[in-house]
């Protein structure tokens, strides 16, 4: 049964500054030996010796990507979400330096190396440069700890970039943990969640707080029910026979480029819609979504939204409040292992994102349709949308057939057989970021 959430900032800190309330039960999911991950990690280790040379004091930071199960485009409205961390991650092998230089080398030759000096006002590299995620973390850490030392690091990722799986927040989290650990500083995960969400705005995207929170706070075998203002995170066990498949639309969802303009437009539309609804209800203009939903039930709010003259704003509003309700229902469905209910909520979420919020694209829609036609219990886009991935719910029995169908009707002719595992895979609910000392 659900227990009351504890605000992280008021919890007595555990070993890692985080308290987890486990709802239901916890499963660790199937053991997976992922060849993509092992080859990334061994390349990082090999290049670390070549690039860094002296490896004294090395340590490894791993920060996972995430798949949001439900609760899309509502974190920045202060509403709860339900993501899980996945077993694909950013890996950083690190050696602290004596000076204030940060030197990061990416094993992917398309990205190369970046070097900058630590300070509390680090000049950004040109917009879209991957090094800005490292700079964002470094600037935030320096503002709290002015004397933090520099580092040399080699970075590898088995997480597809621009796929809506939050590789960018994973890089921010990994970089911050690397700097803090290099400086022998305490790691307050609860505090870092909000801190790094704010820090990531350095790259120009005014995102919500979901990605950093799940990356730091996830527990294997569970999804996290994350609430905001104040931040609170409850883990909910994922039943052992449920399977989540992540499948890429092969359309890049670049948070640092085109998709960003749409993302910001949607956040502004949400703000405007809440203001209009508050006006109709004769409430203060600044009444936000959590306060509206605390005072009125969803259907009452939808009736008011029906009076809005701007139909587009009404649709954005409808997505937000119905998605919030779907999250509540999904948390209960997960805790009671109600597979079909959970799947239906996912599919309804996709329809809302496609029709009301308008952040889907034809490739995401075809993948969702194919998955459902081939026996998926539910499917939806995950992440900001406009490309990226879908997440599909199935079972141990149904997933193989469903994946075969996606391969035949979506990926054939677009992706080499040898690359299929990189674009569609069973996502195992994983632990949050870890540091392994030498
Ligand atoms: C991006 C943002 C998140 C969230 C999702 C959409 O991933 O970083 O904060 O808003 O989009 O749900």
Task: Give an account of the 3D structure.
This protein is an alpha+beta fold. The chain has a domain of 243 residues: Ribosomal Protein S5, domain 2. The protein is built from 13 helices and 13 strands. The strands form three sheets. A six-stranded mixed β-sheet has the order 5-4-6-3-2-13. Strands 10-11-9-12 form a four-stranded antiparallel β-sheet. The N terminus is likely disordered. Bound molecules: alpha-D-galactopyranose. Alpha-D-galactopyranose binds next to α5.
Q: In summary, what is this structure?
A:
With 438 residues, the protein is of the alpha+beta class. The protein is built from 13 helices and 13 strands.
Sheet with most strands: strand arrangement: 5-4-6-3-2-13
The best one-word shape is: globular
CATH secondary-structure class of the domain at 2-237 and 431-437: Alpha Beta
Report the total helices: 13
| CATH 2nd-level architecture of the domain at 2-237 and 431-437 | 2-Layer Sandwich
> Gyration radius, to the nearest Å?
21 Å
Percent strand? 15-25%
Number of strands: 13
pLDDT < 50 runs, ≥5 residues:
1-32
Major sheet: size, sense and barrel closure? 6 strands, mixed
Class from secondary-structure proportions = alpha+beta
* Average pLDDT metric: 91
Q: Report how far the terminal alpha carbons are from each other.
A: 41 Å
